[in-house]
Automatic annotation (TrEMBL), chain A:
Keyword Transcription: yes
Molecular function terms from GO: DNA-binding transcription activator activity, RNA polymerase II-specific; DNA-binding transcription factor activity, RNA polymerase II-specific; protein heterodimerization activity; sequence-specific DNA binding
Keywords associated with the record: Activator, DNA-binding, Transcription, Transcription regulation
Record lineage: Eukaryota, Viridiplantae, Streptophyta, Embryophyta, Tracheophyta
Protein name as it appears in the record: Transcription factor CBF/NF-Y/archaeal histone domain-containing protein
Bias (Polar residues) ranges: 7-25
Superkingdom classification of source: Eukaryota
Assigned GO CC terms: CCAAT-binding factor complex
Chain positions covered by the region annotation Disordered: 1-46, 151-184
GO biological process, alphabetically ordered: regulation of transcription by RNA polymerase II
TrEMBL record, chain B:
A Gene Ontology term for the protein's cellular component: nucleus
InterPro entries: CBFA_NFYB_domain, Histone-fold, Transcr_DNA_Rep_Reg
Chain ranges of the Transcription factor CBF/NF-Y/archaeal histone domain: 23-87
GO molecular function: DNA-binding transcription factor activity, RNA polymerase II-specific; protein heterodimerization activity
Record PANTHER family: HAP5 SUBUNIT OF HAP COMPLEX, HISTONE-LIKE TRANSCRIPTION FACTOR CCAAT-RELATED
Subcellular location: Nucleus
Any single GO BP term: regulation of transcription by RNA polymerase II
Protein name: Transcription factor CBF/NF-Y/archaeal histone domain-containing protein
Pfam families linked: CBFD_NFYB_HMF
Keyword annotations: Nucleus
Main location: nucleus
Length: 221, 123
């Protein structure tokens, strides 16, 4: 609680400093004027202010029972909440960059802001996700050398987190359980260097299937 | 020898080709970030990628808590009111209270909501 209040003070302080901005001046006007000004200031189409409702709906369905339903207004509300979440976190990250006199919001700023705003539980999944993304994409992103060395040092921990994350994913992604089991070998660092472990497994699976077919046929005969 | 299906399952549970390996479009996330304030100058390539996962987690948590509200109401369809109840009941969702309380929120910009929240803080 104390930390939260402390965090709340800083943004307010900076917001007070920006009272000269036109956006804040409009806050003293009536609601209609706010709408007009917002319309003028943000000429973006409505669809550009929110994430696609299909993507949002798909994610929502992952966490409710199969026989549950989601109304259209619930999806639209979540669309708005997600955009607000992005703006909320981005604002915090941007304030940090300004204090440190940097112009680019990077991944660490986003993770810091998410932690500061109370979403600590998201941090480990985010770091794991980013690590996997980099492995797959071959580090197309520009990463400072220091960050690279740090990531190498923490690679073992990340792998441990990967196992944890994998277990968490299984209950929600039943359809991918089999693929998860098959993909377990790649997450052992030593095995990543060799592609051979896949072939024997797949061959053995095929042999077992054939054996089952033969046994069934034999029993039938 | 790599199996893309396995990775896509772990990373984001199956997605259309438009968003690549992420479940949410990065360009749209970047646009929302840019519109979040005048202080946002430049955004690195990493930030939208992290947000695509963060938003996934956020949607899941918000939906899960809302579903609990629906079940308590003896219903199996998630409604807007369930989301409002979940937001009110959860501390880390305080920044959404104004948004879910406004029935015409689709017509109100994000900046207005932020300013209203600031007003509440000052009182």
């Amino acid at each position: 609680m104390e930390d939260e209040s402390h965090n709340n003070i800083l943004p307010n302080g900076f917001n007070t400093g920006s009272t000269e901005s036109p956006c804040l001046k409009t806050s003293t006007m009536t609601t209609q004027h706010n709408n007009n000004n917002n319309h003028q200031n943000h000429s973006n189409k409505e669809q550009d202010r929110f994430l696609p409702i299909a993507n949002v709906g798909r994610i929502m369905k992952k966490v409710i029972p199969p026989n549950g339903k989601i109304s259209k207004d619930a999806k639209e509300t979540v669309q708005e909440c997600v955009s607000e979440f992005i703006s909320f976190v981005t604002g915090e990250a941007s304030d940090k960059c300004q204090r440190e006199k940097r112009k680019t919001i990077n991944g660490d700023d986003v993770i810091w802001a998410i932690t500061t705003l109370g979403f600590e539980d998201y941090v480990e999944p985010l770091k794991t996700y980013l690590q996997k993304y980099k492995e797959i994409e071959g580090e197309k992103l520009n990463i400072p050398k220091q960050l690279r060395s740090e990531q190498r040092l923490h690679q073992h921990q990340q792998n441990h987190n990967n196992n944890h994350d994998e277990n968490n994913n299984q209950p929600f992604n039943g359809a991918y359980a089999s693929s998860n089991l098959i993909s377990q070998p790649p997450y052992v660092p030593t095995d990543q260097k060799f592609s051979l472990p896949f072939s024997p497994n797949s061959i053995q699976n095929q042999l077992r299937q054939q054996e089952q077919i033969d046994s069934v046929g034999h029993w039938y005969e | 020898m790599r199996q893309a299906g396995a990775y896509s399952g772990l990373l984001c549970g199956g997605v259309s080709g438009r968003t690549g390996p992420h479940s949410l479009p990065l360009a749209r996330i970047k646009k929302i970030m840019k519109n979040s304030g005048e202080g946002v100058k430049m955004i690195s390539g990493e930030a939208p990628i992290i947000f695509s996962k963060a938003c996934d987690l956020f949607i899941e948590e918000l939906t899960r808590r809302s579903w609990i509200m629906a079940i308590q109401g003896k219903r199996r369809t998630l409604h807007k009111e369930d989301l409002a109840s979940a937001v009110i009941a959860t501390d880390i969702f305080d920044f959404l209270i104004t948004l879910v309380s406004n029935s015409d929120s689709h017509a109100v910009g994000g900046a207005t909501n932020v300013m209203e929240v600031e007003t509440i803080d000052y009182s």
